[in-house]
Amino acid sequence: MSLWIWLLGALAAIAALAWLGLWAARRLSGNAPRYRDMSYGVAFGYALALAAIAAGVWLWMKPGAVYFRWAVMGFAVCAVAAFLFRLAGRHLGPERLKRQFRKMPLTAAFGILVILIYAFVAIFAAWIAPHGQEAVLGAANVVPGGDPAMGGDPAFPLGTDRIGRDILSRLIYGAQNTVGLAFATTLLAFFLGGSLGLLAAVVGGWLDQVLSRGVDVLMAIPSLIFALLLLTIASVWADGARGLLTFYMVLIIAVIDSTRVFRLARSVGIGIVVMDYVEAAKLRGEGMGHLVFREILPNAMAPLLAEFGLRFCFVFLTIASLSFLGVGIQPPLADWGTMVRDLAQFINFAAFAPMVALAPLLPALAIAILTVGVNFVVDWMLHRASGLKS
Amino acid sequence: MTPLLEIRDLRIEGRSDEEWHPIINGVDLTLGRGEVLGLIGESGAGKSTLGLAAMGYVRDGVRISGGSVMFDGIDLMNASTEEKRSLLGRRIAYVAQSAAASFNPAHKLIDQHVEAPVRHGVQDRGESIEDAIELYRKLRLPNPEEIGFRYPHQVSGGQLQRAMTAMAMSCRPDLIIFDEPTTALDVTTQIEVLAAIRDIVDQFGTSAIYITHDLAVVAQMADRIKVLLRGDEVETAPTREMLDHPREDYTKSLWAVRGYHRPEKPKPGPESVPILAVEGVTAAYGEQVVLNEVSFDIHPGRTVAVVGESGSGKSTTARVITGLLPPRDGVVRFEGEALPPSYRQRSKDQLRQIQMIYQMADTALNPRQTIAQIVGRPVRFYSGLKGRKLAARVDELLDQIEMDPAIYRDRLPGELSGGQKQRVGIARALAAEPRLIICDEVTSALDQLVAEGILKLLARLQDELGLSYMFITHDLATVKAIADEVVVMKEGQVIEQGPKTEMFTPPHHPYTDLLLSSVPEMDPDWLDRLLAERGVEALGEAATDKM
Q1: DSSP class of residue A349?
Q2: Distance of CA B427 to CAs B412, B420, B424, B434, B453, Å?
């Protein structure tokens, strides 16, 4: 009950602050248009933001809020890194690239930086990682941080897991496994869904009906449950062969996700098919290949690319969830989803030993940062494709 | 007495590519009480921007960078949001180009009409509804008591435009800004709207700014005309003076456009085989019959104009000829030989012989292909030329449409102006080396000067290459300029056809007569004369008939 009273009181205080601030700003600025035309709602928004900042500072001062301080510091580091990256892009490299960087928002720069770093780590995992992903190195449950006084070990800066494998190395190899598989799956999904969707748009009629209703049937089944069901069947077929099971997993997720791509490609395609230039190509007597790949695909590229980014995130999360449930990427291969599952019980120590609880959060963070980064880039590309320049 | 609206040295900039570009560079405008000022200019001249600025409003991404706008002693540039809110809709009203897009489709007309008077406290809902019916009656809308209780989609385009004018009048404003209110309408509908707007503005002594690109329309409506060119004022003068003695070269060139005329070619001999013969074609979309027993011939080297209002079946005829819509009945013959009904069954050579040029050059050219690719594709597809020979042929085609290959080869359509895009559309049609080109409203989306250039180009190409044209248009001025023969269509049927000179000399079929007399002329008294001839009552009935 007292919480509600607190909340109401805070809201009333913010409302009063907004009214007072607006009145003062109008008086002090001599009724400048900026404050004169500002509505009370906008002033309330400013007051709310001010209150949020004050609450943030107060939380920062509290000794127990370790994770909050880490989050704020992490955010600041990311922002600075993105800014420096954009600054570098604006002054280095060929002129066309520089022009791109000049118009780029900071979020997009951050996203590109994240993608570049992940790609680099994934490709050169074998050279960067200090240990092998499967190597059991003795001491188990070493706390992250590398401080012997806290139960860490300088040889394992991010600690080791329950059976003594280096978490840093497994994170690095995880990029290769998780991201690589997600990329391959998304490519396959786009090849399937994109080509069939555009074909349905161009041909129309019964082919469109058959494909679309088939897709409807697939989409009617909850995707994660469906994937689990199919993977169970596949694991019988694979008969214990790990590589084969992973291949089946890629195939199954690609087919399930291609339904979404099909929908998008078809709807975008239908919008383009009615254009006069497609009609002109049809009347010229052009074949299906030319219509789909030369006339329609280049114009559907922007929404499809944006969808590619989003779909990549979803596929990536699906693989992580499947691995977490134990049917995805099989141990001992390192994978972020599996790592979260393996280290999950350490989260119970969060209240008294923040460093210990960090272990399961690291792979989760790796997933989160890539997802956010890819979405930033996708947003930017969508914005550019929609022609909104403001 | 102070003028109602006074704009001094107004400068407006628009933002694109992260930079501010000038749209209006220092224009002055004075509007007296009860005066109607016509604003004319090509697209991009800044007419609409200036019209909106007269309301103290700019669109997103646009800013006023200097000058002043005084409305009846109120400085709109420095007025607070509250002050503007009390003016807009009540003392200043706006009528947009497309009423169909500007009415909210989810609400009845009357509910949208009463909004302004009720919100501004001028009238209560009951009074406002009565007043709306009165205004509908004054604007000669059919069933004034009931029409307001319909939804926008239940009312025709011309009626919607008048309902919007009534809505603008609802608070009896001092100033109304009309932004191309008749551009999207057919000529016969346009007359009704023009007459209605002029009457009601007269009756209430309202001042108005009338924005249009059509000189003949502005001549009927305005007391004074201001000509704009790329954000600069060219000249301002009272209407009659401006029409009789334009001072500036630019204005003169605008006036001269209407003078383009191409003499009719001699009639073909009796043994001449028509290059295209449409014989008793009936076509339908599903159950809806849109073409009924349409027949006409096109002889080699001649231009046949197909004329009619929107919905008359002109474009459908073109779709039947090209094979996009197989007819239900009848045949299309090319040089005496029956063409297969669907384009899928036609041979490559049959497809090559008939090419199309489209109305909207924006959607007719693939935005992701360069000009060389767009023009080169049909060359390569039909003649199989490759490499250097292909490039040479593309250059030749670009030369034919008077565009420098060195500059334009590698550009994308988005980097061209409207007229240039239309030229590229022509080059693409020429690239197939056709005998017949179907031109579907090719000039109606273009400014008059640019349209004239396209017509001259088409005429020159016809003389050089012996092409035949089927020219689909609703604009009779274009027909007068270039046609040899005219086919008049209405509701899917051919009403009348014959050589141009015969068609333009009386006696006509009554519908042809209605079409011809509805084309605005550059004479300020034309509308008065026409209304007197037809009789105002008859006009009201004509409006009802069109329902």
Answers
A1: G
A2: 15, 10, 5, 11, 15
Three-class DSSP category at B295: strand
φ, ψ of residue B364 to 5 degrees: the values are -85, -20
Which of B293, B299, B298 has its CA nearest to residue B330?
B293
CATH for A320: 1.10.3720.10
3 state DSSP class of B466? coil
Tell me what pLDDT residue A207 has. 92
Q: How far is CA B507 from the centre of its chain?
A: 28
Residues of B with CB under 8 A from a CB of A: 15-18, 60-61, 78, 80-81, 322-324, 343, 346, 348, 351, 355-356, 358, 360, 363-369, 377-378, 381-382, 428, 432
| Cβ of residue A41 closer than 8 Å to a chain B Cβ | no
Do A69 and A51 fall within a single domain?
Answer: no
Whole-number pLDDT of residue A267: 92
Label residues B361-391 b or e (16+ Cβ within 10 Å = b).
bbbbbbebbbbbbbbbbbbbbbeebeeeebb
From CA B155, how far away is CA B157, in angstroms rounded?
7
In a domain, A125, yes or no: no
Instruction: Indicate whether A96 and A213 sit together in one domain.
Output: no
| A210 shares a domain with A79 | no
Q: Are residues A239 and A370 in the same domain?
A: yes
Contacts of B428 in chain A (CB under 8 A): 280
Q: Are residues A17 and A86 in the same domain?
A: no
Per DSSP, what are the bridge partners of residue B332? B278
Domain contains A110: no
Q: Which of B478, B479, B484 is nearest to B462 (CA)?
A: B484
Write out pLDDT tens, residues B329-384.
888 888 888 888 888 888 888 899 899 998 888 888 888 888 999 999 999 898 88
Of A36, A276, A285, the CB nearest to B351: A285
Q: Are A43 and A84 found together in one domain? A: no
Assess contact for A277 and A283: CB atoms under 8 A: no
Axis crossing angle, helix B125-138 with helix B157-169, rounded to the nearest 10: 130
Closest CA to B329 of B341, B342, B343, B311: B341
In a domain, A35, yes or no: yes
Query: What is the nearest CA distance from B471 to chain A, expressed in angstroms?
Result: 17
Residue type (1 letter), B105: P
CA Rg value for chain B: 25
Task: Please answer yes or no on whether B351 and A295 come within 8 Å at the CB atom.
Answer: no
Angstroms from A214 CA to nearest CA on chain B: 27
Total domains in the fold of chain A: 3
Domain that holds residue A87: 63-104
Confirm whether A141 is domain-assigned: no
Same domain, yes or no, for A57 and A87?
no
A389 touches B at CB < 8 Å: yes
User: What domains, with CATH codes, occur in chain B?
Assistant: 5-259 (3.40.50.300), 276-504 (3.40.50.300)
How much is the ipTM here?
Answer: 0.76
Q: CB–CB of A283 and B324 under 8 A?
A: yes
Q: Report which secondary-structure segment, H or E, holds B488.
A: strand B485-490
Provide the shortest C-alpha distance from residue A204 to chain B (in Å).
Answer: 15
Are the beta carbons of B343 and A277 separated by less than 8 Å? Answer: no
* Tokens coding A167: 């978490």
Which residues does B114 contact at the CB level (< 8 Å), separation at least 6? B123, B125, B128, B129, B132, B170
Residue with tokens 């997933």: A367
Q: What is the pLDDT of residues B417-457, one digit of tens each?
A: 788 888 899 999 989 889 899 998 888 777 777 888 888 88
CB of A149 within 8 Å of a chain B CB? The answer is no
Our CA-based measurement puts residue A192 at a distance from the nearest CA of chain B, in whole angstroms, of: 23
Residue A320 CA to residue A324 CA, distance in Å, equals 6
The pTM of this model reads: 0.76
